[in-house]
Design a protein that fits this description.
There is one protein chain. The protein contains 7 helices and 12 strands. By secondary structure, it is α/β, with parallel strands linked by helices. A 7-stranded mixed beta sheet has the order 3-2-1-4-7-8-9, sandwiched between helices. Helix 2 runs parallel beside helix 5 (188-207) and helix 6 crosses helix 7. It is globular and about 50 Å long.
């Protein structure tokens, strides 16, 4: 059994502020240790379930956050950027399940450190007309590859967002939102024990071949629309074939979800080059 873990940071146990998750922040180094501990809990659960291989993709910000020297020995780590598929670099049909660790709610949601990919610069996103963020896009791309999103960890808002996309996802809340920068925290040991147990329980049936709900690869297309804070971003993106204008700040394109995920990575690079907006304003 091969398991893929995509590790973000805002939804990690104990973290609530930009200072916890941004390089140079007062508590960033503590945040890195916390992120690594959450990932290790998920890895232990995967190994308990019988995983022969666990690939972890450092999917947050600079993508050099995880402390590789303290990761569980079973891990193969994908680290650094740029990556053509960003948060799901290396994911493909050869994996039996996807686990998302440390995820957060979409832009505009009442969640801890809620945003969509680029913080303040992205105001809204829609997948086939449905409001979406990182969870929705990752879920759709993985499903199109034939990989089931089995477990997601984060705050209770992220967990609710995940199960709205797929009620079969085992969602593990490690904190409960009070505001965008405050949360009621589960004790560290309790949260990580819950992560490990959820992963072991969710992946166990996959090893024995029980779940009939595993998606098959799909070539069905979807539509992705993004509203940017700046009209300049939308205007420049119109130079990409297939991108059409919805209004002065919103653009749309269509393709299979993995194609959309890859092209959206290009959109983000354009936006980053044109703007210098702090991500948690």
């Amino acid at each position: 059994m091969r398991i893929y873990i995509s590790a973000d940071m805002e939804g990690v146990t104990g973290l609530v502020d930009a200072e916890d998750v941004q390089p140079g922040g007062r508590d960033y180094e503590r945040g890195r240790r916390a992120m690594t501990a959450d990932v290790n809990a998920a890895v232990r659960g995967a190994v308990r379930a019988g995983a022969a291989e666990v690939v972890v993709n450092d999917a947050h910000g600079p993508m050099r956050n995880l402390l590789s020297d303290t990761l569980e020995p079973a891990v193969r780590l994908i680290r650094g950027k740029p990556k053509t598929m960003g948060m799901i670099e290396g994911l493909g049909p050869g994996f039996d399940a996807l686990v998302c660790v440390g995820y957060h709610a979409r832009a505009g949601a009442h969640g801890v450190l809620s945003h969509s990919f680029l913080g303040h610069e992205i105001e809204d996103m829609w997948l086939d007309g449905r409001p979406a963020g990182e969870i929705g896009l990752v879920h759709a791309a993985a499903a199109a590859m034939g990989v089931r999103l089995a477990v997601l960890t984060g705050d209770d808002a992220a967990c609710a967002e995940a199960t709205a996309w797929d009620p079969a996802i085992a969602a593990v809340p490690v904190k409960y939102v009070r505001s965008r920068f405050a949360a009621d925290l589960r004790p560290d040991a309790e949260a990580r024990a819950a992560i490990e147990e959820a992963v072991a329980t969710a992946l166990g049936p996959i090893r024995t071949g029980e779940p009939a709900e595993r998606p098959g690869p799909s070539t069905a297309t979807a539509a992705l629309a993004v509203r940017w804070q700046s009209s300049a971003v939308a205007e420049i993106l119109l130079g990409i074939p297939g991108v059409i204008q919805v209004d002065t700040r919103t653009v749309r394109t269509a393709g299979t979800p993995p194609e959309l995920f890859r092209q959206f990575g290009v959109w983000m690079r354009v936006a980053s080059a044109l703007t210098n907006q702090p991500p948690y304003c």
